[in-house]
Every structure is written in C-alpha cells, then in structure tokens.
Amino acid sequence: MSTHYDAIVVGSGITGGWAAKELTEAGLKVLMIERGPAIEHGDYKRETQAPWELPFRGEGDRARYAEDYPVQKNNRHFNEWTEDHFVNDKDNPYATPQGQDFQWYRSYNLGGRSLTWGRQCYRWSDYDFGANARDGHGTDWPIRYADLAPWYDKVEDFIGVSGSAEGLPQLPDGRFQPGMTLNAVETHVREAISAQWPDRRLTIGRTANLTQAKEGRSACQYRNICARGCSYGAYFSTQSSTLPAARATGNLTLLTDSVVEGLDYDAKHKKISGVRVLDTASGKRSHYTARVVFLNAGAFNSVHLLLRSTSEHFPHGLANGSGVLGTHIMDHANTLSAIAIMPGFETHTTYGGRPTGIVIPRFRNLDKQDVPGFTRGYSYQGGALQSTWSAAKREPGLGAEYKAKFRKVGPWRMVLVTYAESLPRPENRLTLHSSKTDKYGAPVLEIAFSHGENELKALADAKEQAALMLTKAGGRVIMGFDRPGPGGTSIHEMGGARMGRDPKTSVLNKWSQAHEVANLFVTDGAQMSSSACQNPSLTYMALTARACDAAVKMLKEGRL
Amino acid sequence: MDIDRRGLLQGGLGFAAALALWPQVQAKAASPLLVRVCDQVIPRTDTPGAVDVGVPAFVELGLAHGLEGAPPGNDYLGWLEGELTRHGDDLAALDKEAFSSREPSPWKTIKALILVGYYTSEAGASQELRYELVPGRWDADIPLSPSDRAWSSDWTAVDFG
Asked: Please, what are the averages of pLDDT over each run of 10 residues along chain A (560 residues)?
C-alpha cells in the first residue's frame, strides 16, 4: 500500500469519521488509522440476543470484568451484549494521582465511541462561547455561535437529529427531524414547570436517532438497545453514516489494529513530516506521510499522542511551545438530582423503547448572574418511566402475591440527572507518567482531575430546584443527590489542547489548527476551551467539518 | 427436590420446551436449600416458577462470578443456611429483617439473583411478563388496563425502575 496521502486521520470515532468523510469528499486521498479492530456495520455480535440466550443473562461475568474491565464495567452501557465495544482496561492502563479517581471510558475499535455514545445533540450558544471572556475562567474562545451555526446545520442534516424546536436562546434550535413525543407524565411536568417558571422548559431530548429514514438508514425501531450496535443504522455512528460516505468516494484507505506511536516534526518547514504506526497484529512498524494530519483519537488520547511526540524543538510535546498542552481538562459534574413517584397517571402507559429522554436546558446565570455562589449553569436530562421487575430487588416479600405484584406495570417515576458545567482549571491536567509504561513501551497517561467548588455549588442548587419542580408537578421526591460522580463518568472528558486567540496561552487557533504546526489539526474534544453543560459531540462534529473545510482551502491555496 | 419433567409440564411449558430445559436443570444438582428458597420467592402459579426455569443453578453461577455484588469466594449459601436456622426456617422473617435496613446483606444479593434469573429466563421474561425485541414504533400515551403485564424489555425501566 502507499505510504503517502493527502491527509491522515488518526482515529475513527465520532470526529475521525467526520474528518474522513469531509476530506475524502473534497477529493483528498485519506488514510484513516484506527488502533483497534474492525467492526463492520451489521456485524454486531449480540445485537438481537435475548437475555436467556446469554450465559450471564446480560449482566456478564462480573468476576472476569473485575479483572479485565475494572473501569469500563462501571459504565451503564457496558454489559454482556456490549462488552466488545469497550476497551480492555488491563491491557490499556492509565494512571491517576494518589487519592484521585478518573473513570476513563474508552472504545478502541472501528467507530470508537460512536457505537456506544448517548446520541444527545445540543448546539452551544453565545452564552457558552462567551463564558470564558465573561467570567474570566479559562481563555476566550476565538469563535462565536455565528461561526459555527452553518456547520451545525450541515452536521445535523447529515447525521439526522430528531428534536423539537423551542426558540430558546441558550439552546439554539437545529435542523430537526420530528422529535419523539413526551409521555403523559413528562407532558404534565412540562406544563407544570412552565406555569410556575416561564423561563424553564422541559422538552424532548434531541437525539441522533432517526424518526424518518434517510440515505439507506432506517427509522428507529424503538428497541432502545443502541449500544449493541444497530443494523438498521437508525442512530448515527461512524459505521452507519460517515464511513459509508467516505468509502463511497473511493478516496479512503483504512488501517485497523494500528496504533499511532508518534508524530515526527520537521523544524525546518514547521510541519509534521510523518506518522509512526505500529501494526499490533504483526508487530511491524511503518511510517506514513501526508500533507495534513487530523488528530481525532479522542480528547485525552490526542493529547497523549502530542505529549509523546517530542523533538528537539518541542521537548515538552508537539505544538506545546505555550506549555498549556494537557492542562484545563474538563468533564461535566453529574449526579442523580431527584427521583420522584408521580401519582395520578395509573391508567396511562407507553409502547416501545424510546431511545432518548427529556432535557431541561440551562436556566441559571444567563443574562444576569442570578444565583449567588456559582458561575455558569447546569441542565437536566432524564424522563418518566414505569418501573418493572427490577424494582422487586428493593422490596421485601415472597411467593405468589409478590410475583403477582411485579407482573403489573409499576408506578410512574420521574428521574432528573444533572450535568453541570465544568470550569477549565490548570491543575486538572494530563501528563505522561514518570515510570509506568504500556505493553508497547509508551509512558501511560496520568489524569489529574477533580471537580471544584463551583461544580459542587451548582449541583447543590440543581438538587434543590429538581425537588421543587417535581413537587410542584405533584410528585413525591424519594431520593436525590448533590455529590458528583468521579471525573469521567459524564463521558464528556474534553480539553487539553485548547483553542484560543494567543499562541502563548493556547494550542490551537480558531480553525482547530495548531498555532505552531501548520499542517496539524486537532478536532476532537481536546480542542475545547470550556465545557458548557451540553453534551459535546455535536459541537465536535461541527468544529471538525469546519476545520476540514479550512484545511482543504489552505491546501488549495498552497498555504499548507 | 420436587422438580421433575411432569413438574416442568405442569409449570406451563410445552412438552418440547420442557424436554429442552430438562438437561439444564439436571446438569448440575443445585443445592436443595437453594431450590426450596427459589421456590418460595417465585413459586409456580399460572406461569412457571423459579425452580421450573433453572434459577437455582443461575444463583449458584451468579454467586461464583460476582453478579449483583457477590464478593469473590463468598459462602452466601452457608450464611443462608445458618440464618434460616436462626429464624426457625422462616424465610419471610429473614426477608423482612433484611429489607428493614438499607444495609446490604447476603440475602439481598441472593434474592436479586433469584429475580434476575427468573425475569431474564424465557418464561419469566416473555410469559410472566412481556418481551418485545423490535417494537417498531413508539406510542407515547396509550391506556393501561389492569390486566396488562409489565415489560421485561423496557431497558430504561430495568435500569432506573
């Protein structure tokens, strides 16, 4: 095979697939490199199996998981159906400082985490892009909503996002397929909240699940087992969406089971001169060159690769003249803020498994700082559901009467989970561990992360407000928390190669291009300068499409 | 152990299904204590009970492989035997005591495994409850009749219910 390409894309997940699609469609010959094995669309091993067809009924062999997947097993979507879509922790170690925890959920396979992602798609607004400038945390974003809006349009049109337009300035509407509908309880709660708090809106979760078929992909079948992989192609993944598009151009070469070990820097031309790749199946090492390189390995792995790519000119990591590479990492602080029993809907039910919940967009600290104690905000996701047999685990009882009780559809309950904005702070950072190495001899990544006071105060407010809203809607709150889960558990880890205006204080410019290395683009979560409180993948995709367009123009104009 | 092929048949399984199931039940003679306890938690009614669908063997598998929080190398069955003796063989009293506290207890783990084993068996999931792999549509608000059975395939409810 050829060793020279127009572009190399490192990673095949949500943003890698987008980079491959955009660059191949622009006519570039692209090499996409995936560290893990191939999983082809439709070849999802246990997609249709019933629990009774699996040895451990879906729960999996927890003793083996404790050995091989001590972190991944804590992910709600990790189970006996989906385990092949997650990384083996034992084989792929990372480190945390003593006394700190970080749950790093990873998927080292073709498609990356696009196979198991939560699919929630929310635009950012200027409340978000302007946040760092407004309150002084982090560095100012060099872009605003208007820069990204057309790229959000493009991404939504292509991936298919279902949702409901609400006209909210803090959560701009997108180009939606018809939204999935709220159930009876959610409709009631929406009305009760709006009546009491006109600035608060409960709406259906905007999700990359199709409600209308498009381009060879079926509409959602309402199985709600997305993370197993969907042969219908009804949710966006690399496999269902961007990879077929990239392949259709004839311009894509795909390498799987291939780890990028380093990027070589040519100080004379101030460019990446090559990419060093290890074929993990054969142990063979190769060198590839390209006019432009896109890093899409996943936020922390892209930073890891830059930190490892040292040279005489960049002794502390490629494109790290500023010294900020690895710093200001973020992950939303999340917690289960409230569960309430919702009486009065005993004659209502639903049919099918809706693969999205509800969202209550941020309502705090928008046009003015209206809550003392914390800056920025949070939003809720969740929904109303009727409990089923698993509720029996919590209840005393035995025998025919107990069995009969759980034969019935259970009472309605409403769940609100908070995602609070994570402030960018320099002490939350990625470094290379001083002594631990992985099985290929590379120093492992050390993740130092903790939530700050601002996040804790936001979650305390979120718990209080969740209880107020559900009580106002007639609910009886039975549980609620205000302490966040460990870092990483939102699976929104981001930052480390932040975008900014000043090369002295940021790694990337407004085109997701390294200030110091013209042919290097980092378009996954690593580029983020702040976290907002929305699920970030849609924004990563829009930034990737925008960066690809910029890179292609620069190539055509001979500027790269 | 009061289970036999006739029992499986009376449990509401078709003859072919009963024959298919028999080797699984037979393959490993589960602890008689566990068989008795499983039968007490989910007895046979107009649908098969826990013993009919091989739950005792699943509980043993689950205890050996750390499901539902069972620690490795546990002797939860030995614990259960001792606790039952202490409660004058009254499982209902033991159950009530365990659930009167929020603390974990080996009984809560064993009971959870019985429930998982039963409601994820074919009969438990699709005869006692309803199971639909491909609903094909979403109806957001439809009437619920008192005779409607719960869904074993409502995965959000299984997780958060």
From this structure: 96 98 98 98 97 98 98 97 98 97 98 98 98 98 98 98 98 98 98 98 98 96 98 98 98 98 97 97 97 98 98 98 98 98 98 98 94 94 98 98 98 98 98 96 97 98 98 98 97 98 98 98 98 98 99 96
Contact criterion met (CB < 8 Å) for A76 and B159: yes
- Show Cβ contacts of residue B29 under 8 Å, excluding neighbours closer than 6 positions: B1
Tokens of A127: 């409340």
* CA–CA dist B82, B77 (Å, integer): 9
Owning domain of residue B93: 5-130+149-160
With respect to residue B136, please indicate whether it lies within any of the assigned structural domains: no
DSSP A478: E
Residues A345 and A348: their CA atoms lie apart, in Å, by 5
H/E stretch holding B93: helix B91-99
Our CA dihedral for B46, B47, B51, B57, rounded to 10 degrees, sits at -170
Buried b / exposed e over A445-467, threshold 16 CB at 10 Å, is: bbbbbbbeebbbbbbbbbbebbb
- Which of helix, strand or coil describes residue A448? strand
On the CB side of A125, CA atoms within 13 Å amount to 16
Looking at the structure of chain B, the number of domains it has is: 1
Q: In which band, very low, low, confident or very high, does the pLDDT at B30 lie, cut at 50, 70 and 90?
A: confident
What ipTM did this prediction achieve?
Answer: 0.94
For residue B12, which residues of chain A lie inside 8 Å, CB to CB?
none
Bridge partners (DSSP) of residue A546 are none
| Whether A187 contacts chain B with CB within 8 A | yes
- Subunit contact A403:B42, Cβ cutoff 8 A: yes
Residue A119, φ and ψ in degrees, nearest 5: 70, 5
Tokens linked to B84: 């039952």
CA distance A554 to A548: 10
What are the structural domains of chain A?
4-119+235-320+430-437+505-556 (3.50.50.60), 163-206+333-420+451-479 (no CATH)
Q: Is B138 inside a domain boundary? A: no
Q: Is A531 helix (H, G, I), strand (E, B) or coil?
A: coil
SS3 content of chain A, % helix, strand, coil (to 5): 25, 20, 50
Does B152 touch chain A if contact means CB atoms closer than 8 Å?
Answer: yes
User: How close is the nearest chain B Cα to the Cα of A173, in Å?
Assistant: 23
Subunit contact B128:A413, Cβ cutoff 8 A: no
Q: Does A385 touch chain B (CB under 8 A)?
A: yes
Kindly report, residue by residue over B87-96, the tens digit of the pLDDT. Answer: 999 999 999 9
- Please name the residues between 60 and 119 in chain B that touch chain A, using a CB distance below 8 Å: 61-62, 64-68, 70, 72, 91-92, 95-96, 98-100, 108, 111-112, 115-117, 119
Helix (H, G, I), strand (E, B) or coil at A446: strand
